[in-house]
């Protein structure tokens, strides 16, 4: 019987060798390579280091909410697993994503360590790809087989985040809770379904294809059945689009038909990400949390039939952007990346004061610390009991300070006219663990060390 | 005795599966004793099922709703323990134990039969008057089951596989409380399914005790978790259980994990015994 402590990803081709540990996420690589006219994206993206986050020659910012571009994704795309931060936060969204939220069975530090170690082992294997072991045919196979005999990486990322209840319900863990981690509370427009809220631990699983995200989920459910009980999950996707005629990638559209994420901060700007997204020493968080982030998840149903019956001018006024291009309303012939100038429109004659984008980000210096990194997916859940479509936004965002980030922004949005068309029904607040530094390290190793100190 | 060694190149992801995957080399012959013993266990339970169903049906037919309600869960226990064998006769399993979900017209569907149809009338309508014919049919079906099982040659793979089948039952329909949704007596079914599964493990234990000690320890640990969780919910000196609704979320979660792990581990039991 052979044992693989940490399964080494099997190379699909020699040139696909996994990048060295500690490489930064390749957040800007897709757009950059696209603009450089390079076709073989899959290989490049995986190739890693040389394409580390940076601005494009044109100075266009990289944005995790860019729509994936047609014919660029490849099953060979491999996102680095090891690093200071987890993948799945600042690297661009692939076409599919999900949040799966679990109850955790771990009543001692040893049990928690066991869970984290096994989870790490599964994530390394799944995200880097390889061949599952062959079992005797009289046994259930090791792998579901839905991706065939060799598991391609397919841009898979599995991002592990911890919920308030994990800490709250365990006296030995409670003193180590991240300072700003709380249980999500109701906002005025919410209609929260308890069966779709909170959780001890969640996995954000993203990949080029839905088969890959589902394969990863099934693998983890099978291998960690004794410590993870699935409570709820929500899948979503991002439209894959052709690049614009100028070669620029665009933000993906949400189910209201608008570009979503146009004002996202530049995820390729490491200093900016260190300020807005990653927990640094200046936050006074427990030392184990450095390099982590706060994650807010919201399942926001969109009343799409009703929205489709709203006049175009009203839709644009509610959002604060033109529908076709995403340009701000004060520069309707501009681009979505143009910055609105509210100083010239103090009364909201061009961009209404209560429009979504103006409430969320008024572009003043005082609110720049409230900027969050959005990484949402659209969801389609079939039909509701009333015969209307059950679809909307699986909203996911990351920030270094939950209170200054999502909570403050959402409070500003409370009562916005757009609420008539939105109904948040689930989600929760979580703390995204720091990255797994290297082979042999595991998720939450610093937390486990702190528990034993 | 067939001692042909099995493929020895089986590998295991560390920690991914609880125990080793090197298969036991016991041949099907070893199972003659356990299977014979299991047949006795099943026959005893089915005989008891027929006896208790007769009492239950008599109560229904006499219109004694209170007595029928009291007899409902204890009668079903005998069925739930041996479900993997009863399920070999799919026509009878459907007639005896199908749920409203299995019918397009749900509770109102005239084809909805058996225990759960009667359960629906007793708890939702507090009457037995509209299910007297259903009760007659139930008793006839149970007697037919008894007769067919008496003539059945027990396939070893079904017997051994039954340990996992029972855990799959719990995982799929009991943990959510949807099996006995009107009476809320699911904890009785939990216990009966678990007993039935544990019985099978006990019968084959000597065959794999040495080679699969680690596996059995993990299985025992999870059975113990299920029994420990159920214990505080007992009533009447261990003869019954409180309503499923009393089960706390925390206990349900602990139980769900143990049941899922048992389903995973016991799914390898046939292979470990050299069965297909």
What are the secondary-structure elements of chain B, in order, as H or E?
EHHHHHHHHHEEHH
Which protein chains make the most extensive interface, counting residues with beta carbons within 8 Å of the other chain's beta carbons? A-B, 31 and 34 residues
Q: How many β strands of chain B by DSSP?
A: 3
> For the CA atoms, what is the radius of gyration of chain B?
20 Å
Question: What is the total domain count of chain A?
Answer: 1
Shape descriptor of chain B reads globular
Q: Can you describe what's shown?
A:
The complex is a heterodimer of chains A (453) and B (276). Chain A has one domain. Chain A has eleven helices and ten strands. In chain A, α3 runs antiparallel to α11. Chain A is globular. The N terminus of chain A is likely disordered. Helix content of chain B is 62%, strand content 3%. Chain B contains eleven helices and three strands; from the N terminus they run βαααααααααββαα. The two termini of chain B are 16 Å apart. At the A-B interface, β1, α3 and α5 of A face β1, α10 and α11 of B.
Keywords, separated by commas or semicolons:
heterodimer, A: 453 residues, alpha+beta, 9-stranded antiparallel beta sheet, 11 helices, B: mainly alpha
Summary, kept brief:
Chain A is α+β, with helices and mostly antiparallel strands. Helices cover 21% and strands 17% of the residues of chain A.
């Amino acid at each position: 019987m052979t044992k693989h402590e940490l399964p080494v990803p099997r190379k699909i081709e020699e040139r696909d060798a996994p990048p060295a540990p500690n490489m930064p996420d390749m957040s800007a690589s897709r757009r950059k390579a696209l603009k450089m006219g390079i076709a073989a994206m899959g290989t490049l993206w995986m190739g890693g280091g040389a394409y580390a986050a940076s601005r494009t020659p044109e100075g266009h910012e990289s944005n995790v909410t860019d729509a994936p571009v047609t014919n660029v994704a490849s099953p060979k795309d491999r996102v680095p697993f090891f690093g200071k931060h987890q993948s799945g936060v600042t690297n661009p969204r692939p076409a599919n994503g999900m949040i799966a939220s679990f109850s955790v069975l771990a009543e001692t530090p040893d049990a928690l360590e066991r869970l984290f170690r096994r989870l790490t082992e599964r994530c390394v294997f799944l995200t880097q790809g390889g061949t599952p072991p062959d079992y005797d045919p009289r046994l259930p196979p090791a792998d579901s087989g839905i991706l065939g005999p060799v598991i391609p990486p397919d841009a898979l990322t599995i991002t592990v985040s911890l919920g308030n209840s994990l800490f709250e319900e365990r006296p030995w863990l409670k003193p180590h809770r991240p300072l700003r981690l709380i249980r999500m509370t109701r906002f005025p427009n919410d209609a929260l379904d308890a069966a779709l809220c909170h959780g001890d631990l969640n996995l954000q699983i993203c990949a080029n294809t839905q088969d890959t995200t589902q394969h990863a989920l099934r693998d983890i459910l099978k291998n960690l059945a004794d410590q993870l009980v699935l409570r709820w999950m929500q899948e979503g996707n991002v439209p894959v689009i052709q690049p614009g005629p100028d070669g620029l990638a665009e933000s993906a559209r949400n189910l209201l038909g608008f570009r979503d994420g146009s004002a996202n901060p530049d995820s390729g700007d490491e200093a900016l990400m260190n300020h807005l997204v990653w927990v640094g020493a200046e936050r006074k968080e427990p030392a184990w949390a450095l390099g982590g982030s706060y994650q807010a998840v919201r399942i926001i149903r969109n009343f799409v039939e009703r929205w489709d019956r709203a006049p175009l001018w009203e839709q644009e006024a509610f959002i604060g952007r033109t529908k076709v291009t995403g340009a701000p309303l004060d520069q309707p012939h501009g681009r979505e990346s143009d910055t609105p100038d509210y100083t010239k429109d103090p009364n909201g004659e061009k961009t209404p004061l209560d429009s979504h984008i103006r409430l969320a980000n008024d572009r003043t210096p005082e609110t720049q610390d409230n900027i969050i990194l959005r990484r949402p997916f659209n969801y389609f859940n079939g039909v509701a009991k009333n015969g209307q479509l059950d679809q909307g936004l699986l909203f996911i965002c990351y920030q270094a300070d939950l209170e200054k980030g999502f909570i403050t922004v959402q409070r500003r949005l409370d009562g916005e006219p757009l609420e008539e068309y939105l109904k948040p029904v689930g989600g929760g607040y979580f703390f995204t663990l720091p990255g797994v530094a290297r082979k042999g390290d595991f998720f939450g190793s610093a937390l486990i060390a702190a528990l034993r100190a | 005795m067939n001692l042909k060694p099995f493929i020895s190149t089986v590998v295991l992801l560390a920690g991914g599966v609880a125990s080793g995957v090197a298969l036991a080399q016991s041949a099907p012959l070893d199972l003659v004793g356990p299977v014979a013993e299991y047949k006795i266990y099943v026959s005893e339970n089915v005989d008891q099922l027929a006896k208790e169903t007769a009492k239950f049906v008599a109560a229904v037919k006499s219109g004694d709703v209170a007595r029928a309600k009291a007899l409902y869960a204890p009668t079903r226990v005998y069925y739930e323990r041996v479900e993997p064998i009863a399920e070999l006769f799919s026509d009878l399993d459907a007639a005896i134990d199908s749920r409203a979900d299995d019918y397009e017209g749900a509770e109102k569907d005239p084809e909805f039969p058996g225990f759960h149809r009667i359960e629906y009338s007793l708890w939702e309508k507090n009457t037995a008057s509209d299910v007297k014919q259903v009760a007659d049919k139930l008793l006839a079906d149970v007697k037919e089951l008894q007769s067919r099982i008496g003539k059945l040659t027990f396939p070893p793979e079904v017997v051994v596989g039954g340990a996992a089948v029972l855990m799959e039952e719990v995982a799929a329909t009991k943990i959510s409380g949807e099996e006995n949704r009107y009476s809320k007596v699911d904890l009785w079914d939990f216990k009966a399914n678990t007993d039935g599964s544990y019985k099978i493990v006990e019968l084959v234990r000597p065959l794999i005790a040495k080679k699969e000690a680690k596996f059995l320890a993990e299985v025992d640990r999870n059975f113990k978790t299920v029994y420990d969780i159920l214990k505080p919910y007992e009533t009447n000196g261990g003869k019954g259980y409180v309503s499923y609704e009393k089960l706390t979320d925390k206990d349900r979660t602990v139980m769900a994990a143990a049941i899922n792990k048992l389903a995973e581990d016991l799914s390898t039991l046939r292979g470990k015994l050299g069965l297909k």
